[in-house]
C-alpha cells in the first residue's frame, strides 16, 4: 500500500500588482493555514517519507510552515517542474519515484493539483471525488491510497481518495478524525466543497 498526500499551497499575497508570480509570498491567512494543516497531518499520522515541492516562493513557504509539525526522516525535492507543468507532468513526477517511499507529499498549484487528484482517483468515495472536482482551495489536502508497491505502477483511476480536508475545517472548525494509522483506511472525512468559485493562486 502507498499513500499520496496532495497539498495545494496556502493562500498567497496579491497586494503587489507588480509582483512576479513565481516570487509571491503567503499572505497572513496563508501563514495561519499552513501550520494548522501541518499540525493536523501530525495528529493523524500523515507523515511523508518523501516530499515533492514546487520551487515557487508560496509553495516553499507552505512547506517551511508545515515541516516543524512533521517527524521522521524525509527526503525533500524542490523542483520548478511542479510550478510550470500540468497534471500529466505531476503524475509523471510521482511515477518516477519508483519504490522506496511509502507516503509521498506533493505541494503544488492549481489547476494541476486538482487535476492530478481527479486523474489518479477512481470511483470509490464519490462524495469526496465530487467535492474535489467542485473546488480545491488553497491549503486543501487530499489523501489518496493505492493498492500497489511501486509508484511507477500508479495508473489513471488506480487510487482511492480516503480524505479531503479544507483549512476552514481545522481547529476551531468541525473536522472529523482521520485514522492515525500511517496506511490504514481512515474513515471518510466530512467535507465542504466550497462554493465552486475560482480562487487566485
TrEMBL record:
It comes from the Bacteria. Pfam families: His_Phos_1 (PF00300). Substrate binds at residue 58. SUPFAM superfamilies: Phosphoglycerate mutase-like (SSF53254). Signal peptide: none annotated. Residues 175-201 are annotated as: Disordered. InterPro entries: His_Pase_superF_clade-1, His_PPase_superfam. Transmembrane segments: none annotated. PANTHER family: OS09G0287300 PROTEIN. This is Histidine phosphatase family protein.
Amino acid at each position: 500500500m502507498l499513500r499520496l498526500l496532495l497539498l495545494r499551497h496556502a493562500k498567497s499575497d496579491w497586494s503587489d500588482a507588480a509582483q512576479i508570480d513565481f516570487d509571491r509570498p503567503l499572505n497572513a491567512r496563508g501563514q495561519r493555514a499552513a501550520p494548522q494543516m501541518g499540525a493536523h497531518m501530525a495528529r493523524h499520522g500523515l507523515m511523508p517519507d518523501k516530499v515533492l515541492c514546487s520551487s515557487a516562493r508560496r509553495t516553499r513557504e507552505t512547506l517551511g510552515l508545515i515541516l516543524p509539525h512533521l517527524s521522521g526522516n524525509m527526503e525533500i525535492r524542490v523542483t520548478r517542474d511542479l510550478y510550470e507543468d500540468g497534471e500529466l507532468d505531476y503524475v509523471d513526477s510521482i511515477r518516477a519515484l519508483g519504490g522506496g517511499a511509502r507516503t509521498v507529499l506533493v505541494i503544488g498549484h492549481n489547476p494541476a493539483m486538482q487535476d492530478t487528484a481527479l486523474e489518479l482517483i477512481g470511483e470509490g468515495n464519490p462524495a469526496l471525488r465530487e467535492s474535489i472536482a467542485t473546488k480545491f482551495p488553497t491549503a486543501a489536502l487530499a489523501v489518496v491510497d493505492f493498492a500497489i508497491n511501486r509508484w511507477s505502477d500508479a495508473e489513471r483511476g488506480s487510487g482511492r481518495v480516503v480524505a479531503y480536508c479544507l483549512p476552514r475545517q481545522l481547529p476551531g472548525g468541525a473536522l472529523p478524525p482521520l485514522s492515525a494509522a500511517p496506511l490504514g483506511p481512515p474513515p471518510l472525512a466530512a467535507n465542504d466543497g466550497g462554493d465552486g468559485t475560482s480562487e487566485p493562486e
